[in-house]
Amino acid sequence: MVEQLTSLTQLVGKQYSSGDITLEAPNGDELAFRVKFITEGEVRKLRREMAWPEAPTTFDKDRKGKVIRITNENDAGFKEALEDANRVFSMRLLLMSLIDVETPGETPEEQAAYLSDTVPAWAVVQLSDKIMAVSGIQKAALDAEVEELQGNR
């Protein structure tokens, strides 16, 4: 049955703001998690809170002698730092989604590092994929937001 909504406030209720996901362990065990569906505002807020690396910049002069800024986004160190920042972002987003799941670490960054460095990859990948799917978050949209925010710095 299709429910006709008459107000966006109907999407904010308990029924549409959280749910359950199940992971399948390599041995076949099923593990259930309660998750909160992240809002667009929460995603953007986290993006803005994080420190994103900046590509190395040099300055040169064009033919007319005007100083121009040259940004090297192909720099290996920048690419590595950007990959690390995206990993932390993904882990923090995942952690924000979990309800009643204790994660070691005092800060969100420490918790993200624990998730990334300690929890088996099969679990992190499944959690990430399922949370993004139920939240309606598309990787391409997240990547576009990162580029937009980096371009505004």
What would your notes on this structure say?
This protein is of the alpha+beta class and 153 residues long. It has one domain. Helix content is 49%, strand content 16%. It contains six helices and four strands. It has helices at 14-17, 40-49, 76-97, 108-118, 121-135, 139-151, and strands spanning 18-24, 30-36, 57-61, 67-71. Strands 1-2 form a two-stranded antiparallel ribbon. Strands 3-4 form a two-stranded antiparallel ribbon. A hairpin with a 5-residue loop joins strand 3 and strand 4. Helix 3 (76-97) packs across helix 4. The longest helix is centred in the middle third of the chain and has 22 residues, at 76-97. The chain is extended, with a radius of gyration of 20 Å. The protein starts with 13 loop residues before the first helix and ends with a helix.
Question: How is this structure best summarized?
Answer:
By secondary structure, this protein is α+β, with helices and mostly antiparallel strands.
